[in-house]
Each structure stands twice: as structure tokens, then as C-alpha cells.
Amino acid sequence: MSLTASAWTLVAGAVFGLALAAPPGPMNAVIAEESVLRGWLAGFTAGLGAMTADFVFFVLSLLGVVAFLDSAPTVRAVMVGVGGLLMLYFAYGAVQDVQGTFLSVADGERTDDEGSDGVPGTRGFRKALLLALTNPYQILFWLTVGVGLLQPGRLDVLAVLPVVGTDLAGVLVVRTGSPALLVGLFAGIVVWIVGFPATLVRVGRRIDAFAPTVAGLSALVLAGFGVAFLWSAGTTLI
User: Fold this and answer.
1) Helix axes 26-38, 179-203, angle to 10 degrees
2) CB neighbourhood size of 95 (10 A)
3) Which of these, 53, 68, 70, 88, could form a disulfide with 226 (CB 3.0-4.6 Å)?
4) How far is Cα 224 from Cα 164, in angstroms, rounded to an integer?
């Protein structure tokens, strides 16, 4: 892979990771609660709990699902197609969240600063980890979209756009199955779980003013990847 292709793939992975991590929802509600009540470290630790669940699902997908699907290209294409539909569903959810806030769920809880083991911040980590490990959407994501991310291939993101797709073909090509894409994905998540708590601590509840913009941008990114995944699955099955 050329340096330019690797750079684009890294950037695309980071944007995708940010789009997944940023929309208002239960994970960001936990991060917001911990950040506002207990400071940046507690918020970051909660975000680390959610990301840990993603890494667990990633390893399981890498060791099990992908190895099995290597010999079943049709099944793999179907699962990638389901992943595309899931991305569109996530995009729809982000659109629904345009009127929402980051702190709407967090407002309802007020608990002690320390976890049961006496270590500050561990409560948020355990709560976010448990939520993520039992989140059916997160599990389904790694069983579908994860397959598309881990399998070696080529995803021309802009080529599937109506009207202008032909002119933009080859402009933004993402190499799936490459280390750059996966590093970018988790780097995008890290940027969010570091920056979001820091912003909350700095400006407090004023961050909710930006929630609609974040949700809208996330919807666009997720919808774009959803259509690209569906296109990739369709070209394999047809």
C-alpha cells in the first residue's frame, strides 16, 4: 500500500472512530456524569471502559469470526451488508439525537466518588465496560461491520455517491483489513475519550450546545460508511 493510501486509510479510520464514539447516548452519558461530578480522570476512565469492550470484541472477531468467514465469501458479504444496514441505523439514531444532549441521562445519578474497591474512577470504568459488553448494537457491530473492517479489501467511499460518484471515484479509497484502518479507528476513539471529558470539565454544561452538531456530523459519516458497505456487499453478491 502506498504512503498516500495508508494516510487516507488512517484518517478515515480515525474519522470513523470519532463518528462512532461521539453521538449522545448511554456511553457518553456515563462519561459526562463522571467528568462533571468527579473530574477529567474519572471521565477518561469511563471512556476507557467502553473502549476496552470494543477491543475485546475486536480480538474475538479477529480470532474467530474472520477466520471462519475466510472460507465463506458469500456469508461474509451478507454480514458486511448487514453491517451497512446497521451503520444506516446508527446514522438514523444520530439524526434522532440532533435534539438531544450529552447530559440528559447523567443528570439522574449522584453517587460516591470512589468505586467499591476504594479507587477513584473505577466505578465509571466498570459501569461503562458492563454497558458496552452487554450492548447488543456493539456486539452486532463487531459481528458485521467488524468483518468488513478486518477483511482485506478496497472501499471506495465516495464512488457510491449519486450523480458525482463517478467523478469522485478513487479520491477516498480505504483499505480494509490494514493495520492503518484499525489503528485509526481506535485512535479516533481515544481522541474522543480524552477530549470530551476535558471539554466538559472546562466549559461544563455549555458543551450541550454542541451536541446537535456532533450528532449531525456523525450521522453523515455513519451514513456514508453504511452506503459504502452495502455497495461492497452488493458487488460481491451480484
Assistant:
1) 40
2) 17
3) 88
4) 14
From CA 209, how far away is CA 207, in angstroms rounded? Answer: 5
Strands 173-176 and 153-156: antiparallel
Q: Per the confidence metrics, is the pTM higher than 0.70?
A: no
Q: Assess contact for 24 and 98: CB atoms under 8 A.
A: no
* 113 contacts 38 by C-beta, under 8 angstroms: yes
Based on the number of CB atoms within 10 Å of its own CB, is 112 exposed (0-12), middle (13-18) or buried (19 or more)?
Answer: exposed
Domain layout of the chain by residue ranges: 3-237
Nearest to 17 by CA among 41, 51, 48, 40: 51
In the three-class reduction of DSSP (H, G, I as helix; E, B as strand; rest coil), residue 174 is classed as: strand
Query: For 108, which DSSP code?
Result: G
Element (H, E) at 25: none
pLDDT at 59: 86
- Identify each DSSP E strand in the chain by its residue range: 153-156, 173-176
Which runs of E-coded beta strand occur in 30-141? none
- For 70, the enclosing helix (H) or strand (E) is none
Rounded CA-CA distance 92/217 in Å is 12
CA 77 to chain centre: 21
First-to-last alpha carbon distance for the chain, in angstroms, is: 27
Q: In this predicted model, what pLDDT tens digit does every residue of 131-143 receive, in sequence order?
A: 788 766 677 778 7
Instruction: Pick the closest to residue 185 from 234, 136, 225 (CA basis).
Output: 225
